[in-house]
Amino acid sequence: MKLKEVYEAWLPIKERQVKASTLSVYKMIYTNILNPIMGNEDVENLNKKTIVPFIYKLMEKDGQSSKYCNDILIVLKMLIHFASEEFEINVPDTRWKMTWPTKAKTGVSKIERYTNAEYKRIVDYAIENPSPRNLGILLTICTGMRIGEVCALQWKDVDLDCKMIHVNKTMERIYDPDTKKTWIEIGTPKTTSSDRYIPIMKGILSIVKRFKSVSNDDYYVCTCSDAPIEPRTFRNYYKAYILEKVKLDHCIKFHGLRHTFATTLIENKVDIKTTSSILGHSDVSTTLNIYVHPSDKAKRDAMNVGLKRIFK
Fold this sequence. Notes:
Blueprint: H1 3-15, H2 20-38, H3 48-60, H4 66-87, H5 116-128, H6 132-143, H7 147-152, E1 158-159, E2 164-167, E3 170-176, E4 181-187, E5 196-199, H8 202-212, H9 231-245, H10 255-267, H11 272-279, H12 284-291, H13 296-306
Antiparallel strand pairs: 1-2, 2-5, 3-4
Helix pairs in contact: 1-2, 1-4, 2-4, 3-4, 5-6, 6-8, 6-10, 10-11, 11-12
């Protein structure tokens, strides 16, 4: 049985099992990567000896990242396993693990963040110049919400009595490689842990109260209307906000607001578990490995404190 035949049978089932954004990723991987090379291959022949050179070529000659290649491998193994389960085809064992080439391991990249002084300027401008979009930026850098989460946030998710924000949905622009069309979808958060409650800090509570008092519960926080702002448009506004309004000399990615929030908490001795819970991570190692990069000052202070007795 050809891999493309397995894919055609597998796709309708996956459509009922995963989010539209996840399905879109699967489709793009198959359409752009797997089908051109392996679509006409018999699934019975897709063993480790066939797949490993294919993956290595993607990394070494085509320049694909090890993370993306791992996603490709996951989809390919799902298809092979599906062929075995649904069509009782005698396929090769898929339980083997890939050994990634050393040169493909680039390590954890350091995500950009704003300095404490820049952080304060971003916050101060939003408070001094209140608007729904500025509030969205303020909430992002003061709660660590992802851009899709803050764009999907409605006033009914903001509980002023408990001083909590309930993150229970996210907004995404979905691309369908079959139709070449995109659409906006509001759905469940990224993971189970992403559905969470985040405290509203004292410093921004008054401005949150001011906007909620003039908004309906079904209104979106970033627009104070029944029409949301989509992530792509909000990113464009954020860039203008940083460069033209706050007048910083550089603008990092929107996700850097989340990274700045997380790193600032850690540098101010907030424990990792609490920070991880606020960010919506299922594992504290994610917080440590991806978001937390102590500053040179923090590392220097830690060494001076830790070794001070040696040099007395």
